[in-house]
Amino acid sequence: QVVNYAPFTLLPSAVPSALFEQAYAVQQDFNLLVDAISQNKEFLEHTLASTIKVDDFTAQLFRIHMQVLEEGLAQSVFLGINRSDYMFDCGVDGTPALKQIEINTIAASFGGLTSRTVAVHGQVLKVLGKSKEASRLLPNNPSKGLALGIAKAWELYGSQSAVVMFLVEEVQRNIFDQRCVENELWNRNIRVIRKRFRDVFEKGSLDDAKRLYIDGQEVAVVYYREGYVPKNYDQQNWEARLLLERSRAVKCPDIATQLAGTKKVQQELSRPGTLERLLPGRAEAVARIRATFAGLYSLDEGEEGDKIAAAAIADPDRFVLKPQREGGGNNLYGEELRQVLQKIRDSPERTSYILMDKLKPQPAMNYLLRAHSPLQVSKCISELGIFGVYVRHGKEMVMNEAAGHLLRTKAIEHADGGVAAGVAVLDTPYLV
Ligand code: ADP
Ligand code: MG
């Protein structure tokens, strides 16, 4: 085993306070939206119809979703933990605007580690003789907010002896981030176990009431920190996933909510009228959400897709080409985008991607500190994430919160990738 410090910026980065507040103000709306999508069978079916013909991973998730619905949902408490990510896109006149990159509805990470970065950056500023600036850094503790959501779901599940299960990777690279959330639960006298899909396959079972047991322990909440990319699954792991989804346990997220976080759904949301249909009678929420959307385009077969594909081939630097994948490092940019799109423009494979306008934030100088990397000043851009937590009991929303934020910063030469991908580092916003 090797233990390294998590990478971080030497200095906090400037963030426009109006955009920071805007991102917080829209988070409860996004929570409602994700939850509404997850309950809308027709919308998911219609939106993902073209994608699941060509993308096996999304298709397999979708099959489990349908199977669980046909059987009837055993779960009555729903817990969502998401993170909506943004960049500060610079318009032609130089004013920055808050634009969403994506919303992560499964395994949204770094809420734990980033609960410690304010203290790190506060210390650095003090050492530099800037204690006034240090005192202006905002407190931030997403791990507590996330844990409060999990605790609420555990309580509503209603069995004192049941545990919370963190579903974790085979190789646990980000365990300390997860421990921050876990410890908050132990502090509330809630037992936590850590298991892999393999353990669920070997030792998991459902009783007649579809209560989930593992090693003889009843599980109230399953918190996925795994299961969001194809390489997390073999045949046994898919069977384990199905067992979990069929159970009464609160899944964070349930499979419908995972599907609500696909890039294809994000693209469909930007069509005129879609938000209004999903959130009827909530015109203000719809307006707040829409204001954060960048241009998103379908590559489905037909005239609309042909036209945008041609535009992207002609001017690839305006766009990002995105497959239905999570975890960073999958998107295509520039010349590579052009080549791939040219190759697939007349094949159904095209529909496994979406196109998005490329955002262009204003760079700033900072030092990115990473184990075994040389110390050098870099031209950087930042991405702000807001954590959302909600709990629904039957039809009733009983918790809907913004639970803190995450600022990640990377050198501009990297088009793609987050902290886990080794590109971005943890940062703290300094509001200006
Ligand atoms: P993933 O699910 O792999 O995290 P994202 O949509 O978050 O996919 O994209 C990964 C990274 O690529 C982002 O963190 C961001 O740095 C960059 N990126 C994504 N979309 C855009 C965009 N429209 N403009 C500029 N950069 C983008
Ligand atoms: Mg991302």
Automatic annotation (TrEMBL):
- List residues binding Mg(2+): 102, 104, 326
Q: Give residues annotated as binding ATP.
A: 102, 263, 322-331, 333, 383, 410, 416
The protein's required cofactor(s) are namely:
Mg(2+)
The entry's substrate-binding residues are 83, 106-109, 172-174, 178, 225-228, 408, 419-420
The parts of the chain that form a coiled coil are none
Q: How does it assemble?
A: Homodimer.
Could you tell me what this protein is called? Glutathione synthetase
